[in-house]
Amino acid sequence: MTRRKTIREERDTVTRFVRSYVEGIAFLKQNKEFSQKVLAKYLRTNDPEYVEAAYLIFKEDFIAAPYPITKGLEAIYEIVAFRRPEIRGHKPEEFVDTSFVAELDKSGFIKKLYEPR
Questions:
Q1: How many CA atoms lie within 13 A of 92 on its CB side?
Q2: Residue 23 · residue 113 · CB < 8 Å
């Protein structure tokens, strides 16, 4: 999430961030043992069942092409609209820019991350 001003003025930086994020998702999915070590560290547990369950959740929840799920924005939209009623005339989808993921997806970048090496 970032401001429109940042997207306008620092598009290259946002693009590189999204690219790195997508690469991180692929790394998580393709490097189970390493990913589990990282999860164990940050979850502060060495319980193998807990770490395995956490890994499976993260592996499923992080989709390869992470387009924003606009349905999930509705709750946030309602909270913000409560404090800023002027946004009530807009749809939650108007606050989302899918172009960064779309560019990576269309270019084949995401698909290539999952090709066998």
A1: 14
A2: yes
- Measured between alpha carbons, how far is 100 from 7 in angstroms, rounded to an integer? 10
* Separation CA 59–CA 111 (nearest Å): 17
CA distance 117 to 93: 37
pTM of the model: 0.84
14-50, pLDDT tens digit by residue? 999 999 999 999 999 999 999 999 999 999 999 999 9
Q: Tell me the C-alpha distance between 98 and 4, whole Å.
A: 13
Question: Could you give the CA distance from residue 59 to residue 54 in angstroms, rounded to a whole number?
Answer: 8
How many residues are recorded in the chain?
A: 117
* AA letter at 85: P
